[in-house]
Design brief:
The complex is a heterodimer of chains A (about 210) and B (about 600). Chain A is mostly helical and about 210 residues long. Chain A has five helices and no strands. The longest helix of chain A has about 30 residues. Chain A is elongated. With about 600 residues, chain B is an all-alpha fold. Helices cover about 60% and strands about 0% of the residues of chain B. The chains are: A mainly alpha (about 210), B mainly alpha (about 600).
């Protein structure tokens, strides 16, 4: 941590009022960011619901195979990455540095697998003629618009998370960052995972062709 | 995280020495607060200049305005603005004022400077975020200003950028090509800056309060900045995806906000299936809390300053805190009252009307508490206290018209008339700016170590106070007479008799605006030539007055303040014969 960064830690406790939440400032701030980001996803998912209810000719292009199977694999990968993140966090708390780095590496790999599967699916859909503004099935263009913008927003969060995890791993390895940073980044990673638990049913399962 | 108190002693801040770190990319919350203030100052004079141009055109539509054709040869051929350019100026006036003045000055500028000092902290919790927050907003401002200089000028869709006009591009009129895209990009950047600022304000307030500064002992201004930060944290989070979708509509061919079959400029728009109402829902879910982001800090500043000059405690400070929180909470449930005539179900209109009327309850209680705090006081009249009293006056004047507009049946008639213009200018714009003026006259000695000129300050107050009433009071009458807003000139039979009223308003607006240069002069002159300020010139109790003027780099010169009282110990007999007890004074408060 740099000199000029003031956070709630043992050194300051003697001269400060206790925080109403017994957590480090950066962890509290991550929780606040998560609340804010949840509103962002909430707003864009509200937009999806609003448009979908108002659209009579909504296209539901997905089939169990390959789309839902692929989605289930992606879900499994992302959920697993939350588990590896938990393991990394636990290792960091116990000061087992190499173990923590291994678990962080596993989380990064799983994140990259998720992003790759996602992009592969996207490019497959582009080939079929889907885009933000086109619908090869002839129905409303809003499926493509909402699907790509919402999964795109989520994918951007995943990619940012991967970058953050790599930075944290390097920083933790060089002892520039500590276990608190690992835990705080983990919070973000679990949140991105949680958002997917809304995105997957709303954008995949609800768009299976009947 | 195993720092010991011994190592903490070595953790002191050292002041930066390079010019860049000291004045440009400074991490010091005081410098950042002044940067926000200066940005708001530049923005407010640009916004005021735009309102002058609009007012001149409204009073005398055929008059050429010198040099206006230099700004835009297309928008103002020969210096006479086209109706479209009038809308461009109006859009930029609203956007600049709401985002870069009313959000920046009372919240980001004063909040950054005084929130850490008032709770006894050395700096914000995350100084780097703080610096990034300012420079992000600076970029947003530059992007917004660029719209003046692109080929077809600034957008014409208003500060609310209603879809579908804002979403389709050049066919919607001049300024709707690049100008509108720049608007959306600027606002998206603004959202990110606001997020960084809000996170910092909340974490600082919760975690960096000095010993003894319990939440209940925090000054009202700190409370207001804190609650405002919570509102901003959630409100801008909803605006960000809205602007992203708007940018996609404009650049990627999506149709989130554009319905099928839309014909503009004789061209069928290649979009289908979207909903303009969706933009209004997303925008106003941000937009209504935004007006409380503008007004709550000013309410906090006024509640903080009034006891200092009334020399008695604020009436019901806990009730005031409760009202501020209740207002923040309710602000999320009333966005639909901006949409009574937009085609929403009339049932929803009634549903939004009820919480809108509810929100007047905490606001009324707050106003009554302020009046009650002044009642029976031996008021010390300074420029700062006059602007506080002026705040109460304009806030009531603007608030009362809110009761009318909150009811759908009345709003259907008054919607988009000058009645609404009068309402929001009084209750949000003028009231908030009065809070900023009060804060400036009050805190200037602390920020710059010199006193402002009181005579000029009082002159500025009276001219401004009478001026804003002359500008905005007649607008109620115009609105009731059916005068619609956003028209650049009034040629309809029923509006022609109202033109003399418009001319009166224009003259009043020019004079009131001119009076602001007294303020600007006072501000700049006092910064260099004002008499040196003492540590506590107003005999106030809060922590910012327990340190030098201006405060040292770490605010208290290495001291760790300990707080023993609330912020309002006025009108008491202290042991050294004064009528107030500082928050840092360990002596017991005698019974009143």
């Amino acid at each position: 941590m740099s000199e000029s960064e003031i956070t709630l830690d043992a050194g300051h406790a003697a001269v400060l009022e206790p925080s109403p939440y017994a957590v480090q400032s950066k962890k509290l701030t991550m929780w606040l960011f998560i609340i804010s980001d949840a509103v962002t996803f909430g707003a864009i998912l509200f937009g999806y619901a609003y448009l979908r209810i108002g659209t009579p000719n909504w296209s539901t292009p997905f089939h169990f195979s390959p789309n839902i199977v692929n989605g289930l694999i992606m879900t499994f990968v992302l959920l697993s990455s939350s588990l590896t993140m938990l393991a990394a966090d636990a290792a960091a708390k116990q000061g087992r540095k190499s173990s923590c780095l291994q678990w962080l590496g596993a989380t990064v790999v799983l994140g990259i697998v998720f992003a790759t599967l996602h992009l592969r699916e996207w490019f497959h859909m582009f080939d079929e003629g889907w885009s933000l503004s086109k619908n090869p099935l002839g129905g409303s263009v809003q499926f493509g618009a909402t699907f790509f913008s919402i999964t795109g927003l989520h994918l951007m969060h995943v990619i940012s998370g991967i970058i953050a995890l790599i930075v944290i791993a390097i920083g933790y390895n060089t002892e520039w960052l500590d276990a608190g940073h690992v835990e705080t980044t983990g919070l973000y990673w679990h949140f991105v995972d949680l958002v997917w638990m809304f995105v997957f049913p709303l954008l995949y399962l609800m768009n299976v062709a009947r | 995280m195993h720092e010991t108190s011994a190592s903490h002693a070595a953790h002191q801040h050292t002041a930066p020495t390079s010019f860049i770190r000291k004045h440009v990319f400074s991490l010091d919350h005081k410098v950042i607060g002044k940067q926000y203030y200066d940005l708001a100052l530049v923005a407010v004079f640009i916004g005021m200049g735009l309102s002058w141009l609009m007012r001149i055109h409204l009073g005398w539509p055929a008059w050429p305005i010198p040099l206006l054709d230099k700004l835009s040869a297309v928008g103002a051929p020969g210096g006479v603005m086209t109706p479209e350019y009038y809308l461009s100026l109006m859009t930029m006036h609203g956007t600049i004022m709401v985002f870069f003045v009313l959000t920046n000055a009372p919240f980001s500028a004063f909040g950054n400077y005084f929130l850490p000092i008032q709770i006894g902290a050395e700096d914000m919790a995350f100084p780097r975020f703080n610096m990034m927050s300012f420079w992000t907003i600076f970029v947003a401002f530059i992007v917004m200003m660029t719209a003046f200089f692109v080929t077809d000028g600034p957008p014409i869709a208003g500060w609310t950028s209603y879809a579908p006009l804002s979403a389709v591009g050049g066919d919607a009129g001049p300024g709707m090509r690049l100008g509108q895209t720049l608007w959306a990009v600027s606002i998206a950047i603004f959202c990110i800056s606001s997020l960084l600022g809000a996170l910092n304000f909340i974490a600082t307030t919760l975690d960096l309060r000095t010993k003894g500064m319990s939440l209940a002992r925090m000054p009202l201004s700190t409370w207001a900045w804190f609650v405002t930060a919570v509102i901003a944290l959630l409100a801008f989070a909803a605006l960000l995806p809205a602007t992203i979708l708007l940018i996609l509509d404009r650049t990627a061919g999506t149709s989130f906000f554009i319905p099928a079959g839309l014909v503009l400029s004789d061209k069928l728009q290649p979009h289908s299936g979207g909903s303009p109402l969706l933009w209004q829902h997303l925008f106003w879910f941000f937009g209504h809390p935004e007006v409380y982001i503008a007004i709550l800090p000013s309410i906090g500043i006024v509640s903080h300053i009034i006891p200092v000059f009334a020399r008695k405690p604020l009436l019901g400070p806990r009730a005031a805190i409760g009202c501020i929180m209740a207002t923040g909470f309710l602000s999320y449930m009333v966005w639909g009252h901006h949409m009574f005539v937009s085609g929403m179900s009339p049932f929803s209109a009634n549903l939004f009307s009820v919480p809108t009327l509810f929100i007047t309850i905490p606001m009324t209680i707050l106003t009554l508490l302020l009046i009650g705090s002044v009642y029976g006081a031996k008021m010390r009249f300074t420029a700062a206290s006059l602007f506080c009293l002026g705040f109460i006056s304009v806030f009531i004047s603007g608030g009362i018209s809110g009761f009318f507009l909150a009811q759908p049946s009345i709003d259907i008639y008054l919607h988009a008339t000058y009645f609404v213009v009068a309402h929001f200018h009084f209750v949000m714009a003028v009231a908030s700016i009065f809070g900023v003026f009060a804060g400036t006259y009050f805190w200037f000695p602390k920020m710059f170590g010199r006193m402002m000129n009181e005579g000029l300050g009082k002159l500025h107050f009276w001219l401004t106070f009478i001026g804003v009433y002359c500008v905005f009071m007649p607008m109620h009458y115009l609105g009731l007479a059916g005068n619609v807003r956003r028209y650049s000139a009034f040629t309809d039979d029923y509006l022609i008799p109202l033109i003399p009223v418009h001319k009166f308003i224009t003259v009043a607006a020019l004079l009131t605006g001119a009076a602001q240069f007294i303020f600007l002069f006072n501000l700049i002159w006092s910064r260099f030539k004002g008499p040196i300020a003492s540590e506590n010139p107003w005999e106030a109790t809060t922590l910012e007055w327990s340190t030098t003027s201006p405060p040292p780099f770490d605010n208290f010169g290495g001291r760790h303040m300990v707080v023993y009282h609330g912020a309002d110990e006025y009108g008491v007999q202290s042991s050294d014969g004064k009528d107030y007890i500082m928050q840092t004074s360990p002596e017991k408060v005698p019974a009143r």
